[in-house]
Each structure stands twice: as C-alpha cells, then as structure tokens.
Amino acid sequence: MKKLIIANWKMNPLKGSEARKMFAAINTVASKLKNVETVVCPPLVYLESLGEKVTTRSCVLGAQDAFWEHAGPYTGQVSPDMIFNTKARYVIVGHSEVRKLGETDELVNKKIQSILQFPLIPIICVGETVRDADGEHIKFVKHQIKQALGGLTQEQVMRVVIAYEPVWSIGVKAKRVCTPAECREVVQNIRHVLADILGDTDSARTVPIIYGGSVDGGGIEGFLADGLVQGALVGHASLDPKEFTKILKIAEKI
Ligand code: PEP
Questions:
Q1: For position 24, which CATH number holds?
Q2: For residue 170, how far is its CA from the centre of ligand 1 (angstroms)?
Q3: 154/24 Cα distance (integer angstroms)
Q4: Is the pLDDT of residue 132 over 90?
Q5: What pLDDT shows up at residue 201?
Q6: Measuring CA to CA, which residue among 188, 105, 114 is closest to residue 145?
Q7: Which of 212, 92, 68, 209 is CA-nearest to residue 151?
Q8: Separation of 73 CA from ligand 1 center, angstroms?
Q9: For atom 8 of ligand 1, which residue has the closest CA?
Q10: Calpha distance 252→225 (Å, rounded)
C-alpha cells in the first residue's frame, strides 16, 4: 500500500497566485514519487485552477469539506458533485475545526454517505479533545468511528480513509505532540472497530489509517515507522513547500 500524505492548507494562502506557486513546488517533487500518494487540500476557491496543474495520479487534490445535498437552496454550501467536477478526488470530513463550529457526528455521517455516491474518497477525521489515564479517549474515538460509518455498506467502508487526529496535538499552539506509541494504541483500537464492522481483520487492514497533529519533517518518520499508520494529514507544515516536500521524501523511503 502506498503512503498517503495529505496537505490541509485550511484557510490559506490569501491569493490564488500563491496557491499555484505552492502547488507547483509540491507537484515537482510529489509527481516523481513511487511509494507516496500526495493529496493537496486547498480552500475551495482554488480547486478549479489548481485542477489544471495536476499532472499525475501521484499528486492530486482534495476538498476540506462538502455539504450532503447535491444542489438547491443552501447558501454558502458546496456539494460533492461540484467537488468531483473540479477533478478533486478526496474530501476531508469531520475535521475538529469544523466540528468545533457545530458539526455533529450525525452530520459527518450524512456528508460521508453523500460523498460516497461519487468516485470520491472521504478522509474521516476523528480524535479526542483531551486524554485521561482511564482510556476514555479510546472509547470516544471508537464511538466517533461507529457514528461516522453508520449505515454504510462494507464496500463503502473499504473506500474510506481514517485520519486519527488527537485535537490536543493539532496546530502551532499545541502544548505537546502525540507520540508514535500513543498514536499506535488508538490506531489498534480503530482497527478493532473496523474488523467488527467488516467482519474480518484482513479487510480491516486494507482501510488506510493516517495520523494528523503537528507532523513535520522531524516527526514523520516516527509515525510511519512506529505509529501503525499509512500516512499523515499535515496542517501548518504543509504551507511551507520545503518542509512539506521533506516529509514526502522521508515517507518515500520508509
Ligand atoms: C490538521 O488540522 O489537520 C492538522 C494536522 O494540523 P497541524 O499539522 O497544523 O497540527
């Protein structure tokens, strides 16, 4: 299985010209990699123009969110159909920054069901806001996964990507970064939930699980080598093409 490294640019950069420069710098490196699939998720307004710059299947585009309806009177929303028409192939769903604005598990599930009606891959973000010694965070993450995947067929479950993102480890202001061992423990539990849903551990193993939370060129190796994950969702470090391509090159070698 190829490593999956995803850039989440969030609400950056301010100009389309800058977005095109950043994508070109990433694409130059990413398009030559054999063992890594790179996905750049810019703000929606840049998807169409960046779509013209995609040159290989090794470096593609994703959206940062999608609405569940296809079209109609939903001011400000963008549907999976529209995203698919821009040539994007992935959609981030359930990011903690969207959940913080009121998105519920139920809405996350509706979005996933809608996204899966297209040849799009949902990147489902789950993760606890706090950790405690009693392992409550594991129950919390398991619950989020079950809710997110509720009502999906087994075939649909096998088309998703799960991003484990402990919220306390996200962003430049994070007090500390999750360790590969802490990541591994949760990922093992996510695999158990997937095995329950899919009815066998081999199928569960084919669903990519990636890690997100302050990943940079210094930390990626640890997660890929010891975190039991197949890739990473990268926020602030993906805004610096030099740092991001460093991550890609390390992932290529592991
Ligand atoms: C994210 O928000 O998905 C993320 C992983 O951000 P950062 O890398 O900045 O922690």
A1: 3.20.20.70
A2: 5
A3: 37
A4: no
A5: 83
A6: 105
A7: 68
A8: 32
A9: 235
A10: 12
Q: How big is the chain, counted in residues? A: 254
Domain with 33 in it: 3-253
What residue type is 70 in one-letter code? H
Ligand 1 neighbour 210 (Cβ under 6 A): no
Strand partners, 126: 164
Write the residue with the smallest CA distance to atom 1 of ligand 1.
235
CA 191 – CA 205 distance, rounded (Å): 7
Q: Per-residue confidence at 192, pLDDT binned at 50, 70, 90? A: very high
Total structural domains within the chain: 1
For ligand 1, pick from 125, 129, 165, 216 the residue to mutate: most ligand atoms within 8 Å of CB. Answer: 165
CA–CA distance, 40 with 62 (Å, rounded to integer): 6
pTM for this prediction: 0.97
Residues in a beta bridge with 38: 5, 59
Residues marked active site are found at 95, 165
Cβ–ligand 1 distance for 236 under 6 Å, the answer yes
- Checking if the pLDDT of 204 tops 90, the result is no
Cα–ligand 1 centroid distance for 59 (angstroms): 19
Is the pLDDT score of 134 beyond 90? no
Spatial separation of the C-alpha atoms in residues 187 and 164, rounded to whole Å:
7
CA atoms within 13 A on the CB side of 56: 15
Q: Which residues pair with 92 in a beta bridge?
A: 123
Rounded distance, CA 215 to CA 127, Å? 15
Residue with CA nearest ligand 1 atom 7: 235
